[in-house]
Amino acid sequence: MASEDVKTSESAVSTIVNLAEEAKLAREGVKSPSYAFLSICKSLVAGGVAGGVSRTAVAPLERLKILLQVQNPHSIKYNGTIQGLKYIWRTEGFRGLFKGNGANCARIVPNSAVKFFSYEQASMGILYLYQQQTGNEDAQLTPLLRLGAGACAGIIAMSATYPMDMVRGRLTVQTESSPYQYRGMFHALSTVLREEGPRALYKGWLPSVIGVIPYVGLNFAVYESLKDWLIKSRPFGLVEDSELSVTTRLACGAAAGTVGQTVAYPLDVIRRRMQMVGWKDAASVVTGDGRNKASLEYTGMIDAFRKTVRHEGFGALYKGLVPNSVKVVPSIAIAFVTYEVVKDILGVEIRISD
């Protein structure tokens, strides 16, 4: 009994000491390990929610964009945004508009979580180095430094979730009239691993990484720089009490998405086409009716660019740009605003505009 009392007393003393230490750290402005861990978790949750909400809202346009990117030029099924959406509705119904969205969300939720969190950490690290280099502790991130932080975040997030993106692309291009090789994301992953090997899960990774540098980098740089400019200059009465309205932040996100996706779009087209290489039913999936089963083969990114431009012209690098623009503008805007709103609800300090 005495030993149990001693253990109980020691446990109580240990708890009191830990609480005192955390209170001391809080008074000194230092975050305790448990607080830091909770903050990281909340940041990741906010990023994941932002990704899931924004992508589901524009899922039909995402699917149409990919179908336009990879369809055979000699067997055109989708001629534009409105016609393409109507065609999918008529041939596959409502569910056809959201085909591949489950796999897309399974990819985009962790991707978005890692991307936003990585941007926060990269921006803080870059800002610290910049302040040390300049000797000015009040220095703030420049648009170029934000671009660098966004590029780092994009590369980390893309690399971490790329296999999901690869199989999502294949799932998305399957139609009612094409052979169904994949029954779902996990079946697609296992089939690709078995038939094509683990390296196949990273087909198109290089153009993806090259494309994500300007895409994600410009998204963050334009969004944060616009917000800073609006808060400092206060044009048209858009700023009240140093805070931007949701509508204004949506507009900033829309502008960021437009700039980023226009610059990086050709690389996205090449990425999708490279992802089809090695899939034995890719030709019939792309044409939609089994005709013109020419093999889809590229030796690399440069070869894919060369063959696409030679056979289909320069405009082929921007196939699907219109539905993608209609998709990206609200998607990026919703993602940024949802992220900030969820972080406010969870009570986490937002640092992406530091």
From TrEMBL:
Pfam families cross-referenced by the UniProt entry: Mito_carr
InterPro entries in alphabetical order: MCP, MCP_dom_sf, MCP_transmembrane
Example GO biological process: transmembrane transport
Protein name, per record: Adenine nucleotide transporter 1
Organism classification: Eukaryota, Viridiplantae, Streptophyta, Embryophyta, Tracheophyta
Cell compartment(s), UniProt: Mitochondrion inner membrane
Membrane topology: Multi-pass membrane protein
SUPFAM superfamilies, A to Z: Mitochondrial carrier (SSF103506)
Top-level taxon: Eukaryota
Membership in a protein family: Belongs to the mitochondrial carrier (TC 2.A.29) family.
One Gene Ontology term, aspect cellular component: mitochondrial inner membrane
Solcar repeats: 38-125, 141-229, 244-345
Key words of the record: Membrane, Mitochondrion, Mitochondrion inner membrane, Repeat, Transmembrane, Transmembrane helix, Transport
